[in-house]
Amino acid sequence: MTVDYSALGQRKVGRRRLLGYLVAAPTLAVAVRLASDANVPGHALTIPTPGLPADVFDLSDSQNYAAKPTAHLIWMEIREDGTVHFALPRTEVGQGIVTSTAMIIADELDVPLQDVHVTLADSRPELVMNQLTGGSNTTMSTYYPIRTAAAIARGALLEAAGLMLGGLTPTALHTDNGAVVAPDGRRIPYGDLAKDAAVDQTTEVEADLKPATDLKLVGTTVGRTDARAAVTGAKQFAMDIEVPNALPTMVCKPPTIKGTVRSVRNQAAVLEMPGVTHVAIIPTGVAVRARTFGQCIDAVRALDVDWAPGEIGSDSDEDVLARIRKAEIPMAVPEVPLLAKTVDTDFTFAFASNAPLDPDCAVADVRTGSAEIWASLKVPIVAQQELAEALGFPMDKVTVHVVQGGGSFGRRLFTDAAMDAALASQAMGAPVRLMWHRADACRQGRVHPMSTSRVRATVLGNDVLTYEQRHTSGRTDFGHGFGDIITASAAKLPVGDYSISQFIYLLTTGAHYNFGATTSLLDELTDRKLNTGAMRNIYSPNVAVARELTVDKIARTIGKDPYQFRRGHIRNDRLRTVLDRVAEAGRWGRSMPRHHGQGLGIHSEYHGHSACLVEIDASPATVNRDVRKAVTGPRVTKVVFAVDVGLVINRSGLKAQMMGGIMDAIAIVLTSSLHLKDGNFLEASWDNYAYTRQWNVPFDIEIHLVDSGIEEPGGAGEFGVPAAAAAVANAYWAATGNMPTHFPVNHSAPLHYEPYPYNPPVPPSPTSGLDHVK
Fold first, then answer.
1. Helix (H, G, I), strand (E, B), or coil: what is residue 281?
2. Run of H or E residues at 64
3. Residue 569 domain-assigned (yes or no)
């Protein structure tokens, strides 16, 4: 049985009644479709007060509407063993969507959670823009299609059971724990109904969604459905995929960014090294295949390659910053005289790495005329197209399997590792299990561009008359488009990704305060010298840090308490509620020891609202802590975070997402960045890259989930970063007495490590872990 609800909008349906189709299939298989004018609960396209474009129609709205035309191609199946199978057209990278999706299905279908099996769909080009994982949009765009499919399936099961029970009407029956139950207590398991519920002719049907009061799982706390597999090692990531004869493979990357190979001087000698089976030149370097990854590292280090230089030349941080300064858009409002005051701020954000903890990797088996790729990919349709083009195959001859990844931060939007694997496999004529070295991830991988953010506000008395923000950034590569082939191709045109960056900025940057005439504009460089990409929440963390520091500066200028000033100027009641929650729970304004401080930050995005209160310890004893080969500095000691994202699917999952965002926020404000020097990034490992570590984690974290009664879920995957980053920055100011203007605050400090050489491009494998124990 397949369900299609394209008829939505052709006749009136209720808020919980949706139309669809049962489509011919041998067992109970359900598919769904939402027409672009679907009459389903959604975000209003008008708001009662003026604001920026994102306050009216934001990025998540655009993604929701883009997904609807192909939602009918998403299907769900109930098998004869009673299990429910759903291929989610999104990518699980640790955000918990496999669990939350299973919860939605189990609730609507009245089936035990353990009987719902959610897998990740292979690349499906027919889904167009409906297979992009990004913008915190998975649950928002799939919630009603998934519920509707489950509801139609439940209705079909009731119909089939009624006939089996002697002509009982569906209204006389109910469903419970994977079975249809008759008034006299007789139970028919779903598996026994799977064939009888199927149809051999497409039929239009209506689906009644459950009222919110009947949902038992949604809105509760549920442990990850894949937790046991993860902790026992049974969970499969790309490196766990068993493909016959797929051996470890690595690529010797160039010593300069985007360098290329002229020749390999000692290829024959490397082929004689222990375990090495293949050495091949590919466009991104020299690929080596061996029996173990340790042997691959040895081979990479032994290669003698004649490299052609890259595109960045001898540029350093200062050179890129100078180009950004030159591109900055002027302020529109001049400095005002007499009674009004002008508040100006100017902030710089260094390069940052979006490399997840698990290295970039992929398995590829390229044969004559066809290929199979296994990788964690957030835009598998674009990956399939790019891989087919690179291999010289028709697109339908390349199969892309999406595998769960252990993190993303934006990195999985690109196909770099999968491309290396496919090209290496083709060149070698053998399947490969390719993995990047961590040095590759930092030096040759994607980076979040350097940027500046400037704010000017005009203040008269207690009122802000004008507020303008100008964000200027290095180019952000949006070559993945919106997950489909057309926009990805357009993004590769000379200024294609610049156009996408403007679209994304306008639809993610809203007006948070009643600050009179408000504008927020982006300009980006257009050169493509660096490998860049979006990092978690794209522009919002840096924009929010600049905005919230400026708000504190305005409050100080007019002698107002930062909390009360925010509260009086916030445009949205839901946002004011979360601010009140953190101020109360965090005891805003309490007496703090010397060199300690509190800071606040707020942020709205993805139909949600968040606020954060941070306490930080910048005392000399803390700042000067000695941790071997580590960055310490000021320590965030307490975080109180409140979030309202509308309907919460999994409370523990949402809290975990916010905690992860808080760790990101601490990192980008205090410790973690990449240093570009003489045409290369200095960092070459997680030992070098000072992401938030255990010795910098807050002692006390409180996450408050605020219920505003909204019936639809908002986006949450990236949402924890902006408000928390802003609060950390303001707390740092309160503790030190100096408003930070360069981020992270330690970027100009002496390095805590000795940079690894660039040639060979990777350091040797450690020989004794005991040498690293203090």
1. strand
2. helix 59-67
3. yes
Last residue of a domain, one of 232, 256, 276: 232
Average pLDDT over residues 231-248: 94
For residues 405 and 238, the answer to whether their CB atoms sit within 8 Å is yes
Q: Which residues contact 712 (CB under 8 A, 6 or more apart)?
A: 41, 42, 43, 140, 143, 607, 646, 647
Closest C-alpha to 80, from 148, 22, 160, 5: 160
Do 500 and 557 sit in the same domain of this protein?
yes
- Does residue 754 fall inside a structural domain? no
Q: Is 774 exposed, middle or buried, given 0-12, 13-18 or 19+ CB atoms closer than 10 A?
A: exposed
Q: Do 333 and 429 share a domain, yes or no?
A: no
Please check whether residues 657 and 626 belong to one and the same domain. Answer: yes
Sole residue written with tokens 């442990």: 223
Cβ–Cβ < 8 Å for 145, 32 = yes
Neighbours of 111 (CB within 10 A): 26
Confidence category of residue 10, pLDDT binned at 50, 70, 90: very low
- What range defines the domain where residue 76 resides? 17-232
Question: Can you point out the beta strands (E) in 606-660?
Answer: 608-617, 635-644
Same domain, 559 and 668: yes
Over residues 336-357, the pLDDT tens digits come to: 766 789 999 999 999 999 898 8
pLDDT above 90 for 13: no
Distance CA 412, CA 94 (A): 12
Could you read off the pLDDT of 382-419 as tens digits, one per residue? 999 999 999 999 999 999 999 999 999 899 999 999 99
What SS3 class is residue 411? helix
Q: Would you say residue 767 lies in a domain?
A: no
Residue 7 has pLDDT above 60, yes or no: no
CA distances from 582 to 94, 153, 423, 432, 640 (A): 27, 43, 51, 51, 6
